[in-house]
Amino acid sequence: MATLLQVKSSIFGDNGNSSQLANDFIRAWQQANPNGRVVVRDVTAEPVPHLTAEHAGAFFTPEADRTEAQREIIAYSDKLVSEVRDADVIVLGVPMYNFAVPSQLKSWMDQIARAGVTFKYTETGPVGLIDNKPALVFATRGGLYAETPNDNQAPYLKQFLGFIGIKDVTFIYAEGVNMGDEKKQAALADAAKQGETQLKGILEKVVIAA
Predict the structure, then answer these.
(1) Which CATH class is domain 3-206?
(2) Cα torsion angle, 154, 25, 195, 201, sign
């Protein structure tokens, strides 16, 4: 049974453009894969704690030496890591806020970036410890940023996912959504079509092989 992990990060919940695109994709995925399982991690409805010194201390303390509070921190982080590790495909809805990813999504990333768990350092550099899998990012922006020096989102997300081992990353952009209704609707329609195309490839990679 194939498992899809959906990560939502819009502060507007399911009304957000990125959430709507991701939700449409997942409904199509479920229709094509009725036995598949969808795990939803909404980092705005259920905020992930920001990284603190207490979190870092827990991550670097040997298991036998952890306090009860540190064990609780690790258990929460382990749950987030397991959702990523167990997924066959990951779908992220990522709006652009002030030129960057939502802070709630950054917190989720900080909680799953753990040395010795999701990556390790070697003599030749860092190596991701999460098995590679398709990751689809629905990136929605009010203006036009894709493939320009002003796009701080996509390179960062690609670098982070690759850092933990996920290198099969595809971005679907819906840009200019604040540049008039006509521009918005055209951008969302085009992104939805791209999602349909990507679904076919993902089904070949994940469902047929599952």
Answers:
(1) alpha beta
(2) positive
Q: How far apart are CA 162 and CA 131, in angstroms?
A: 10
Torsion of CA 127, 140, 99, 120, to 10 degrees: -10
Q: Is 65 helix (H, G, I), strand (E, B) or coil?
A: helix
AA letter at 9: S
For the chain, what is the mean pLDDT? 95
Beta carbons within 10 angstroms of residue 53's beta carbon: 7
**Using CA atoms, how far apart are residues 188 and 146, in angstroms rounded to an integer?**
15
The model's pTM = 0.95
d(C-alpha 184, C-alpha 79), whole Å: 36
Residue 202's nearest CA partner among 93, 20, 210, 140 is 210
**Residue 209 backbone class (left: φ over 0; alpha: ψ -120 to 50; beta: rest):** alpha
Using one digit for the tens of pLDDT, what is the confidence trace for 43-101?
999 999 999 999 999 999 999 999 999 999 999 999 999 999 999 999 999 999 999 99
Q: Interhelix angle for 17-32 vs 181-206, to 10°?
A: 30
Q: Give the number of residues written for the chain.
A: 210
Residues of the chain with pLDDT under 50: none
Rg (CA), the chain: 18
